[in-house]
Amino acid sequence: MQTTDSLPRDAQSILELAARSMFDLFATASEGMLLGYTGIVSFAHTMFFGIGAYGVAIATTSLGPTWGALAIGTGASLLLSLLLALAVGLFSLRVRAIFFAMITLAVASAFQTLASQLSDITGGEDGLSFKLPLWLMPSFEPFDEPVLGLTIDGLVICYYLLFVVAVLLTLALLRIVNSPFGRVLQAIRENEFRAEAIGYRVVVYRTLSSVLSALFATLAGVMLALWLRYNGPDTSLSFEIMMDVLLIVVIGGMGTIYGALVGSVVFLVAQSYLQDLLRLGSEATTALPLLSALLSPDRWMLWLGLLFVLSVYYFPTGMVGRLRRQGESHGH
User: Fold this and answer.
1) Of the residues 14, 162, 272, 325, which has the maximum number of CB atoms within 10 A of its CB?
2) How many CA atoms lie within 13 A of 191 on its CB side?
3) 3-state class of 129 per DSSP?
4) In sequence order, what DSSP letters do the residues of 205-269 get, joined into one string?
5) Is the pTM of the predicted complex or chain greater than 0.90?
6) Domain boundaries, the chain
7) What are phi and psi of 129, to 5 degrees?
8) How far is CA 320 from its chain centroid?
9) Residue 93, Cα to own-chain centre: how many angstroms?
């Protein structure tokens, strides 16, 4: 990942953590809308995420680092995601939930293989590094002096641009899930047959939900590519990303956009600082070799998995769901 030397290392790491939290929040919120509001598990989320990232990477590589190239890449990736989401939705949403999950997993795996093999277009396994318009490059410094103690450069401008976009898109997501459309989706999740009997066409609503989720995931991929100025199969299409997103949805709570916010912050803090905590624990227990080995920073994935199992056990409806239930009990 490229960084700028104009920022202090602490500021770099804070900016990096904030940016990652923002992308995880947005990718998770779009998956949470699908899973939490319709009860559908889709493994194609990473495919749409990758389409957005590759759209920007391929456009800027082919057309040059211009705002027009960014617009074309974003527009083309949204159109491709729309068509693919419609195709997957219409063909798959009539089958049972587990078969839909398997179909989306197969489609996502095929897309990842395709991205790795079309090296002339996608850069293959090496991916694509690209430049952005001058204003978004780390070397760009519009001011000689710091503004309010912060050195303004292209990386900072890029972060705040993406932050504004993320806020606007999150507000749009909240508007969708709190609209009559969102309430119909919740009705379908609670009782599909009753919703159908009332007169709502379940397949149409589920397909629309799938398409909207795909478009938001595509925009999350666009934002990630802009921040990294690089994209490859492991960056935006790996199965690990899908697992992380599902973990965050479950930790935060399904059926709520706020759950995505809480889950992504908790997950990223655990991921970022768990190794440091384990290192301290390992050094403090050197007298007990077995315990010290268990607390080795290299085993952070083991402890992260254990934390996830405990969170699911103690917070089956997610952290936000648990807090809501406590609030309702206190209200009564």
Assistant:
1) 162
2) 6
3) strand
4) HHHHHHHHHHHHHHHHHHHHHHHHTEE-HHHHS-HHHHHHHHHHHHHH-TT-HHHHHHHHHHHHH
5) no
6) 9-246
7) -100, 140
8) 18
9) 23
